[in-house]
Structure formats: C-alpha cells, structure tokens
Amino acid sequence: MTLGQRAGREPASGVGGVDRDRIKKALEGCYDASIDPELWPGAMHEIALAFGAAASMIFPKDVNEAAATMPASPEYIPFLEEYVKEGWYANHYRAERGWPLMRQKRVVLEHDLATDEERRKLPHYNDLYLRWGYSGFAAIAFYVEGEPWCVPLLRSTRQGFFSPEDAKQMEGLSEHFSRMMRLSRFAEAARTNSALETFAAQAKAAVLLGRNKKVLELNRSAEALLPRCAPDLVIRGGMLRAAEPRIDQRLLSFADACLAASSSRSPLVQPPLMHVPRRTGRPLMLEGVSLPFMAPTMLSQAVALVVIHDLEARPRLQVDRISNLLGLTEAEARLCEALMTEAPLREVADQLGITIGTARQRLKSVFHKTDTHRQSELLLLLSKIPQK
C-alpha cells in the first residue's frame, strides 16, 4: 500500500493519466498559494492528482538539507523528512543526471535518467523510492531569476511510470511556476516590510535574518537603537555580534536557533530567547518571532525575525505591581525586581540579604508561577508588563 493510498487520496484520473480540467484548477490553487503560503500543501496535492501522481513538491537546485522546508503535498512530507535525515540527497542519480538534462528539456522522466537494467541496481531507487512505494518520477523544469528549479512528481507502484504523452502535458507548466515563484517572492517581501514597520510603530526594534544568519533589513527603531548598544550588540560582518566572546558565541547560536525554529514544521518548537548584558544599565532581550507568512519555504531570502527589547528604556517596575500582576509573594517580586538589573543570582541574594539557596528556591517558585523556565524568559515577561 502506498503512502497516497494510506492517506485515502487517489488520483482523479485513475492509474496514471492526466486530467486537463484538474490541471487548470490546480494551477489556480498554486497562484493563490503564491500569495498565501499556508495554501501550498493543498495546492501541491492538487497538482499531484491532476497528473495522476501520489505526491509533488517545489524544489530549487542544491537545497539538499533544506529540502524538507519546501512547499510539498502532505503525502511528500514524511518521505522528505527521511530523505533529509538519512542524507539520501548525497550522490543521488536523479539530481546528478537530471539537472543537466533540464537545461535541454522542460520535463525529465525516470526513463530519461536510467535504463530498466540499471535501475534494478540503483540503491536510491530500490532502497528509498520502492521502499516507500514510489516507482514513477517526473520533474518539470523552470527558472527563477536564472536559477534552476523543478517540480518533482512521484507516482506509486500501482500508478506506474510517467509517459512521453504525460510529459507533453507538463511542458506548458514551466512558465507558470516561474511566475508563481516571482509572485511569491514579491508578496513575501511586501509582508516582511509591513511586519518591520508594524514593530516600529510599537517602538520595537526588529531585524530580519537570512539563511546565512546575516541581517537583511532593520526597521527604523532598530536603526536608532543599535548605535546606542555598541559594542555590546553590533552588526559585524553582516551579523548580530557582541564584543564579549562568550556572548558573541551565544548570539551565533541564537541566530541558528531562530532559523531552525522558523524552518520547523512542528508547532511545538518555541521561538528562542536570549539576553545580552550591557556594560552599563540593564540588558537587551532578543526574541525570535514566528510569523505566519514565514512558513517553511525557501521562496524568500528572509527566514527569521528578531525583536530587540531595550530594558533600559523602560522604568523599573514596582514590587507591588509585579506581585499583583503575576501572583507572586512580596519576597518573590523583590527578587524579580533585583534580577532586572541583570546582576548574577549570587549578587542579587547578597543585595536582598538572603542566602543563594533561598534565592534559588524563590526563583524556582517564580518560574512555576509564571510558567517560565529560564531567567531570560522571566526577564522578557517582566519587560512586557505595562506601566501604570
């Protein structure tokens, strides 16, 4: 039983075959998805059904480890996760032979890539595709700003191979997919600019990061804040960096975590947080933000957004306000107020005239009552409490 059969999804035209009416409807769905990325899974599912296939996706050349972040039909996703996790992209005959062929042909089929005899010995074909129940393969080639992309389609063993007649029906889709990707990039650029300005209107500094962890764009609040933060937080080599080596390494790890959270399909992955100590005054809090339009795709350069909270810009909260709003005891609220100076817990304990053990117990109680797990999370929560 194939993955498509297990999911209860069968091609509208039966075994193999192309459904022209469904192609038109599927293309309309893909154009809609170019504006609303959440529609891509359903749109790619319809593309697969229109061509009598079990699964389809959109794939730019050389993405490899990031393949699982691309728009794909629901049936393709579990397969892609194994494909990436197990490193099947290495020495893949379809990529090595297919991409050069796509310079000459708009559609490449499985039989363009290997003979029947050769296919019986190919590990990728037998140990991966046939194990998942996928025997047939076709790829529609197209270009985005000169870079090669394709739409791979997989047919189950029951559906069989794609034919030259199928390929002729697919050829006309190449220009459509080129336009879709250009439209998608334009729409995402507009949304990211809008998001940056939304944060600026709230007096929040926001930074867009690309896949290489480099800063792509700052909003006007970030442009005003960062010069005041130097050298504790700067843009160096195009990245968010710090003067202090330990914090600098943490910043690089934080950027990695932001990218990982942005590309994850799991809703359980939480956006990362970190604090950046300052030589004078209270620290900066950095928060990775998940935005709906930053769906797991590679259709735009911007893949993560970081909001920088300047705790120094906020008046210190009063103990009674912390206590009342968070349901803390007065002692716990005093601990929170002292922690906002970013002093180490031992110094905070000395300041409050308590032992380090008592301070740890109070902090543990605060974590429990506020549903936080780290001091950085707690400080971010405290920074968001509105003033009187």
Summarize the structure.
The chain has 388 residues and is an alpha+beta fold. The protein has three domains: 3-183, Beta-Lactamase (2-Layer Sandwich), CATH 3.30.450; 202-312, 2-Layer Sandwich (Beta-Lactamase); 319-383, Arc Repressor Mutant, subunit A, CATH 1.10.10. Helix content is 47%, strand content 16%.
List strands and helices in order, with pairings.
Elements: H1 3-6, H2 20-35, H3 40-50, E1 55-56, E2 59-60, H4 76-85, H5 93-102, E3 107-109, H6 110-113, H7 116-119, H8 123-129, E4 134-144, E5 147-156, H9 164-171, H10 174-201, E6 205-210, E7 215-218, H11 220-229, E8 234-236, E9 239-241, H12 245-263, E10 273-276, E11 284-289, E12 302-310, H13 319-326, H14 330-339, H15 345-352, H16 356-370, H17 375-383
Antiparallel strand pairs: 1-5, 2-5, 3-4, 4-5, 6-7, 6-12, 8-9, 10-11, 11-12
Describe this entry's structure for a reader.
It is elongated and about 80 Å long. The longest helix is centred in the middle third of the chain and has 28 residues, at 174-201. The chain has 3 domains: 3-183, Transcription factor LuxR-like, autoinducer-binding domain (Beta-Lactamase), CATH 3.30.450.80; 202-312, Beta-Lactamase, CATH 3.30.450; 319-383, Winged helix-like DNA-binding domain superfamily/Winged helix DNA-binding domain (Arc Repressor Mutant, subunit A). Helix 2 packs antiparallel against helix 3 (40-50), helix 14 packs across helix 16 and helix 15 packs across helix 16. It is of the alpha+beta class and 388 residues long. It has helices spanning 3-6, 20-35, 40-50, 76-85, 93-102, 110-113, 116-119, 123-129, 164-171, 174-201, 220-229, 245-263, 319-326, 330-339, 345-352, 356-370, 375-383; strands at residues 55-56, 59-60, 107-109, 134-144, 147-156, 205-210, 215-218, 234-236, 239-241, 273-276, 284-289, 302-310. 36% of the residues are buried. The N and C termini lie far apart (63 Å).
